[in-house]
Amino acid sequence: MKTRTCRKCYRLLLFGSYYVAATKANSRRRSRVCKSCHIAITGKACRDNPEIYSRRLRLWRQAHPWIVKETRRKWRARNSDRESQRTRQWKMDNPIAATVSARVSGHKRRTEVTLTSDGSITLESLLYELEKQNWKCAVTGADLHIVGFHLDHIWPLSRGGEHILPNVHFVAPLTNMQKHANIPWEFCYAIPRCWYED
C-alpha cells in the first residue's frame, strides 16, 4: 500500500486520502495535503475571500447549468417536505414577488407552447382525439363526461416535451394536478391503483 505524509498535518496516510489533482503534465498526480486539510484550507480561503469565491461559484454555475439543474432536482426529490415548507414560507414573506413569479412562470410556459408547436393541434384534431379516447381519462380510465377534462402533455414541457398532437392526451383534472411533471407511467408506478385503459 502506497503512503504519503501530509505537508499540513504531517500524518502518514494512504494514497486514497489525497485528492487526485488533474493536470496537463500528469493527470494522476496526487495533491500534497490530505483531504481533511484540503477542506480546511479551502473553507478558510472561502471565509477570508467571500467575494472571490462567490464570483468563482457564480461563473462555474453559468458554465455548467445542466449539472446545477440536475443537482437541484435531486436535492428537491430528497427533501420535498423541506422544499415545500420553504416555498410556502417565502410566499408568505413575499406575497407580491410570489404573484409576479407565478405570472412570469405562466408567461414562460406560454412561450414554450408557442415555440414547440408545429400547428398540428387544432380544435378539430383535439375533438377527434377526445372521441378516440372514448371520453375516458388516458391515465385512470375515469369518465370525462362526469369529471371534466384537462389537456395534458405526455412528455411534459418542463422536461423537453413538445406541444404537438402525438404528445398530448386528455386526462381527468385531479389526475393532471396530481401528476405534476411526471410521465404517465412514472405516475402510475408511484400510485399502484392507477392503470391505462384503451
Task: Please give the structural blueprint.
Blueprint: E1 3-5, E2 12-14, E3 18-21, E4 29-34, H1 35-48, H2 50-63, H3 65-78, H4 80-93, H5 95-116, H6 123-132, H7 144-147, E5 150-153, E6 168-171, H8 173-179, H9 184-190
Antiparallel strand pairs: 1-2, 3-4, 5-6
Helix pairs in contact: 1-2, 4-5
What does the model show?
With 198 residues, the chain is of the alpha+beta class. The protein folds into 3 domains: 61 residues, no CATH class; 52 residues, no CATH class; 68 residues, no CATH class. The strands form 3 sheets. It has a two-stranded antiparallel sheet with strand order 1-2. The protein has a two-stranded antiparallel ribbon with strand order 3-4. A hairpin with a 6-residue loop joins strand 1 and strand 2. Helix 1 packs across helix 2 and helix 4 crosses helix 5. The protein is elongated. The N and C termini lie far apart (62 Å). 9% of the residues are buried. About 3% of the residues have low confidence.
In short:
With 198 residues, this protein is of the alpha+beta class.
Order of helices and strands: EEEEHHHHHHHEEHH
As a percent range, the share of helical residues equals 40-55%
Tally of contiguous helical segments: 9
Mean pLDDT: 77
Task: Please give the domain count.
Answer: 3
- Unreliable residue stretches: 22-27
- How far the N terminus sits from the C terminus, by CA atoms, comes to 62 Å
- Spatially, the strands of the biggest sheet line up as 1-2
